[in-house]
Design goal:
Helix content is 32%, strand content 15%. Bound molecules: adenosine-5-diphosphoribose. GO terms for molecular function: histone deacetylase activity, NAD-dependent; metal ion binding; NAD+ binding.
Length: 281
């Protein structure tokens, strides 16, 4: 691909190259990495988009800096801002996007080696992607526990507290009274062990798809550099990010990820099936 090809032409021509590679049967172990950009179409703001991103809209919570809302030491002192945000982000009111359903299609066609997501919205599960194929690298709202005694907190009660924007505390006998926090990985916390155990899945990949992430947060962002040099890496994102585009077989599909995924589905002959599955959710 000659250097001066404007990105637009590059992406449309290369999408057919990616489709051809998949249809040739040479892509059997596809690893997908996703971020908040695949859920914005579901109505969930991402973090860093200039105007619409969460970090640009937390000013009302008078945080020392936006990321403090997910910072463990800040949460221990003042859990309220997090619970204001949790009320807005809590799963149950959102619908998976076409991009989520595309990943499910890959799984159903036996092509999904693994999905690594940074998202905490559980939309991958709701889209029907098999749980054993998903790594929620930054945890999720699916469970919660006391940060002191680690006792799990009841899910129904959690929903109650979150819907009222109130801060739940541990009810352990003997009055632990510790703060309850969803099993979301806060800044200052370790990622789940499974994330580190399954990073080798990326080394085994024969195709890497990166969708809707700024690749600003490590160690997740480092995943994209674990694939072997010759393995094609495709970015579906509004803008170029991280090391994407630096390798010969990188493909940049810049723009709305649902649009890019629909173009790829067209080239694969999966478009009808994709739309049907998405409507059927
Ligand atoms: N189509 C394509 N790309 C999109 C779309 C869209 N509809 N909407 C947003 N994007 C892109 C943005 O341009 C940006 O590059 O998705 C990316 C989202 O980046 P972030 O907001 O930084 O989200 P993410 O990469 O998931 O953040 C990583 O940061 O705050 C922590 O733990 C949090 O998991 C989160 C991590």
């Amino acid at each position: 691909i000659d250097e001066d090809t404007p990105p637009k032409t590059l992406s449309s021509r290369s999408i057919s190259a990616v489709a051809e590679y998949i249809l040739s049967g040479r892509a059997k172990r596809i690893v997908v990495m996703t971020g908040a950009g695949i859920s914005t179409a579901a109505g969930i703001p991402d973090f860093r988009s200039p105007d619409t991103g969460l970090y640009a809209n937390l000013a009302s919570l008078d945080l020392p800096e936006p990321e403090a809302v997910f910072d463990l030491s800040f949460f221990k002192v003042n859990p309220r801002p997090f619970y204001v945000l949790a009320r807005e982000l809590y799963p149950g009111n959102y619908h998976p996007t076409v991009s989520h359903v595309f990943v499910r299609l890959l799984a159903e066609k036996g092509l999904l080696h693994h999905l690594f997501t940074q998202n905490i919205d559980c939309l991958e599960r709701e889209a029907g992607i098999p749980a054993n194929k998903i790594i929620e690298a930054h945890g999720s709202f699916a469970s919660q526990r006391c940060i002191e005694c680690k006792k799990e907190f009841d899910g129904a009660k959690m929903k109650e507290f979150v819907s009222r924007g109130e801060v739940p505390r541990c009810e352990e006998e003997g009055g632990c009274k510790g703060l309850v926090k969803p099993d979301i990985v806060f800044f200052g916390e370790q990622l789940p062990k499974a994330f580190f155990d399954r990073r080798e899945m990326v080394e085994q990949a024969d195709l890497v798809l990166v969708m809707g992430t700024s690749l600003q947060v490590h160690p997740f962002a480092g995943l994209v550099n674990l694939a072997e040099e010759r393995v094609p890496r495709v970015l579906f994102n509004l803008e170029r990010v991280g090391s994407m585009g630096s390798q010969a077989d990188d493909v940049l599909v810049l723009g709305d990820c649902d649009e890019g995924v629909r173009k790829l589905a067209d080239e694969l002959g999966w478009r009808e099936e994709l739309e049907e599955k998405w409507r059927g959710l």
